[in-house]
Amino acid sequence: MASSSELGIQVLAHPKAFLSMVSQPISSNHALSTVVQSSWPSTAWKRETSTATMGEVEAWDMPSLRAKLKKAKPGTGEVRRAIENCTFNIGERGFTMLIATFGKSGPWKKALEVFETMSGPVMAARGIRPNAYSYSAIISVCCGAKASTKALELYDEMKAFNRSATLKPSALIYGCLIPECSRASRFETVYELHREMQAFGFQGSDATLLCVLEGLLMLKKWLQAADVLDVLQSRGFVVPQKSYKDLYRACAESM
């Protein structure tokens, strides 16, 4: 019997014979089957191609994982399985990028599932755990989705899991949490977050301090409100007239 390479040469030399072979079912033509199989790509590639058709191929790099996650349905376990079964090391930075990506493109709960997978036992066994960047990313996503309760849960979890101060909250976290809690009228929480932010050495942006000022006025914490007002004025920030009026009226009533 001729080898597959010899058969390939015969095909090139006798095209009419080749066409005759093609007209026959491949299962009944051992010679043509041998030529086709010998020219077929590697077994791994063939396996990936066939499973891709069935939607079962595992992600092999970040672009393929993003594509797979984009098709995954939240709440079905598809997100977790796609990540846990991928054939490359995502890494903590990769997880943070995925959280930010799906936080922007939505739905936001898909980003949350990415974070929860990162926090799970499978990733822990691979040496991957949430860090300050991934917590900042998911808390920002939750605040953007107006999910203040979940954002605060993650914030408390971050503080509880603080490993040798490596999970210290960032200014970004407070810059997301305080405005969102102010929007949700959780003014007592705004006050507590402001105190914790100061304890960590963060001053807060003008927008963040304006939310703090509003919360302090609503809680009738006049002295603290006056301190925040002084900080804003020292920065040259133009405070809304309503805040001035509320504070002056409170001072007049307390005299």
Explain the layout of strands and helices:
Elements: H1 4-13, H2 15-22, H3 30-39, H4 43-54, H5 62-71, H6 78-84, H7 91-105, H8 108-118, H9 121-125, H10 132-144, H11 148-160, H12 171-183, H13 187-199, H14 206-218, H15 222-234, H16 241-254
Helix pairs in contact: 1-2, 1-3, 6-8, 7-8, 7-10, 8-10, 10-11, 10-12, 11-12, 12-13, 12-14, 13-14, 14-15
The topology string of helices and strands comes to HHHHHHHHHHHHHHHH
Q: Return the average pLDDT rounded to an integer.
A: 80
Radius of gyration: 30 Å
Termini Cα gap: 110 Å
The best one-word shape is: elongated
**Which regions are unreliable across 5 or more consecutive residues at pLDDT < 50?**
1-55
- The helix content is over 70%
Task: Provide a descriptive summary of the structure in words.
With 255 residues, the chain is mainly α. It is 71% helix and 0% strand. It is built from 16 helices and no strands. The protein is elongated, with a radius of gyration of 30 Å. The protein starts with a helix and ends with a helix.
Task: Give a quick precis of the structure.
Helix content is 71%, strand content 0%. The chain is mainly alpha-helical. It starts with a helix and ends with a helix.
Relevant terms:
disordered N terminus; single chain; mainly alpha; 0% strand; 255 residues
